[in-house]
Design brief:
Largest sheet: 6 strands, antiparallel, barrel
Structural class: mainly beta
Strand order of the largest sheet: 1-2-3-6-5-4
CATH architecture of the largest domain: Beta Barrel
Number of helices: 1
Radius of gyration: 16 Å
Order of helices and strands: EEEHEEEEEE
Helix content: under 10%
Number of domains: 2
Shape: globular
Strand content: 35-45%
CATH topology of the largest domain: Thrombin, subunit H
Length: 152
C-alpha cells in the first residue's frame, strides 16, 4: 500500500444502489471480516440494528476491477445500540472468493511505538478508497492501539 496499490485482500461493501458503505479484510478464501454496522448498511438496515442480517450482501474487491461476490453473515457481534454506547460491532461473512482475491497477511504480535502501519478505508467521497501511513504512538494495551495522524 505504500506505493498506492491495493492488496487483493481489501474488500469494499456496497448497498443495493451500489453506494460504498464500508471496508473489510479477506481472512481466507471463504471469509471476510468487517464491522457489523457496515453489514447493516449494505443490507439496507438501520446502522444500529441488533439482529443478525439474513440477506446476503455484495462485496467488491477494488484491486481486481469487476471482482465481486455475495456474502452471508457467519458470525455476528452487533454494533452499539446508539451512538456513543458500547458494542462489539464485528461481523465475519462467508463467501466464495473470486479468482485473484487473496487473504490478508495479518500480524501475530502488536506493533510497538514507532512501528509503521498502513490504514485504509472508503470515505464517503468516493469508491476508490484511501490509504495512509501511520505509526503506532503509544503501543497496544488490552487490544486497543493508539495511532499518530496520517503522514501525507
Amino acid at each position: 500500500m505504500p506505493d498506492g496499490s491495493l492488496p487483493p485482500s481489501v474488500a469494499r461493501f456496497v448497498d443495493g444502489s451500489g453506494r460504498t458503505v464500508g471496508a473489510g479484510v479477506v481472512l481466507s478464501r471463504t471469509h471476510v471480516v468487517t464491522c457489523a454496522h457496515v453489514v447493516n448498511l449494505a443490507a439496507g438496515l438501520d446502522l444500529h440494528a441488533q439482529e443478525r442480517p439474513m440477506a446476503a450482501v455484495r462485496v467488491e474487491f477494488p484491486a481486481l476491477p469487476g471482482a465481486a461476490a455475495m456474502a452471508s453473515v457467519a458470525s455476528w457481534t452487533p454494533p452499539p445500540e446508539r451512538e456513543g454506547s458500547a458494542g462489539g460491532d464485528l461481523a465475519v461473512l462467508a463467501f466464495a472468493a473470486p479468482d485473484g482475491v487473496e487473504p490478508a497477511h495479518l500480524i501475530t504480535t502488536p506493533p510497538r511505538p514507532g512501528d509503521p502501519v498502513d490504514v485504509f478505508g472508503f470515505p464517503a467521497t468516493g469508491r476508490t478508497g484511501r490509504g495512509c501511513g501511520r505509526s503506532c504512538a503509544g503501543g497496544c494495551r488490552a487490544g486497543c492501539c493508539s495511532w499518530t495522524a496520517c503522514r501525507r
